[in-house]
Amino acid sequence: MQKINETQLKQLIEAGVFVADKALSIDEMKTTFLSDFSVSTAQIKKVLAELELDYAPRGIHLVKVASGYRFQSDEALGVLLSKLWQENAPKYSRAMLETLALIAYRQPITRGEIEEIRGVSVSSHIVKSLTERNWVKVVGHKEVPGRPSLLATTKTFLDYFSLSTLAELPSAEDFAESLEQAMAASDMNVEVSSEEIGNDSISDKQPTNSSVEKRTENSSSNNEQLH
Q1: What percent of the chain shows pLDDT beyond 90?
Q2: 123 shares a domain with 171
Q3: Rg (Cα) of the chain, in Å, rounded?
Q4: How many domains is the chain built from?
Q5: For position 9, what pLDDT does the model report?
Q6: Residues of the chain with pLDDT under 50
Q7: What's the predicted TM-score (pTM) here?
Q8: Helical packing angle, 6-19 and 41-55, nearest 10°
């Protein structure tokens, strides 16, 4: 195994995360561009922490999401940077967002339980769309007659909203407020209360970022890898 000094290691990790087309875990770094070097996990974590500090005051940040580390633009710049893309950011129906919220906050949950909470049926198209986006997956079956599928969110869902874990989800109240504002901006006259997304089941979750609105609003720029 080759030796590498601290400066070279920092340069290599910075470049590796920069050119990668997805978030990189420490294990992936060790088995790819660091495979020829004798580097410990502790060394890599130290370098990543230094890079996070280096980029903190800049327009680009090194962030940790569920799948690993990636570079992304500062959330505050999302609206301005979105002008780089010709296509409009995808818009989601109230039904889809409410369904996704219930899965995120009450997972694992069945389609029937979602329908019971929302008071209306859940279109198979909604579940299919969330599954095709790899935001939601089947994680098992409930041991009741019919053994309905249990739905839960994926690492891709966390990555999309720049979250490392489910514990970073905002409170139900913040999510409901963000949902109202996002849909109002889309000229959709809707009202969403925190009760509709199961506030009573998530009182133990605290937000660590400002809101889901920011993540949704800026997703077009935050989730583009820098090349």
Answers
A1: 48
A2: yes
A3: 20
A4: 2
A5: 96
A6: 185-227
A7: 0.61
A8: 70
Tell me the residue range of the domain where 16 lies.
Answer: 6-57
pLDDT at 1: 82
- 14: closest CA among 49, 42, 40? 49
Give the span between the Cα atoms of 33 and 12, in whole angstroms.
8
pLDDT single digits (tens) 39-79:
999 999 999 999 999 999 999 999 999 999 999 999 888 88
Same domain, 51 and 138: no
**Same domain as 106, residue 44:** no
Which residues have a Cβ under 8 Å from the Cβ of 219 and sit 6 or more positions away? 78, 89, 160, 161
C-beta separation of 197 from 101 below 8 A: yes
Asked if residue 47 is part of any domain, the answer here is: yes
State the virtual CA torsion across 20, 26, 32, 36 in degrees, nearest 10: 130
Q: What is the CATH number of the domain that holds 211?
A: 1.10.10.10
Q: Which of 61, 41, 44 is nearest to 9 (CA)?
A: 44
